[in-house]
Amino acid sequence: MKYFLYKLIPPRPTFAFDMTDEEKQIMQTHSEYWSRLCDERTAVLFGPVLEPNSVWGLGILEVEDENAAHAIAMSDPAVTSGVNTFELHPVLIGKMR
Asked: What is the pTM of this model?
């Protein structure tokens, strides 16, 4: 298996604090999507990263290849809605518990 870091990029630095009602609903659906990926053991973890000047989403995927990771990213409701964009980066595991 291969691992990928999924970075969900918000449309603005204040997004986590000033979402519209529509954006809140999209992010709720996004959270449900990633919860399902964790339950299926496709996602190792997901959640917000709290930087001093912004908040962005992090997901670690365990998949067969980059195509599978890209398909998962492109199917995220936060992306399909057009609200957020993403970056996908391969991760070389040094050690896991």
From this structure: 0.95
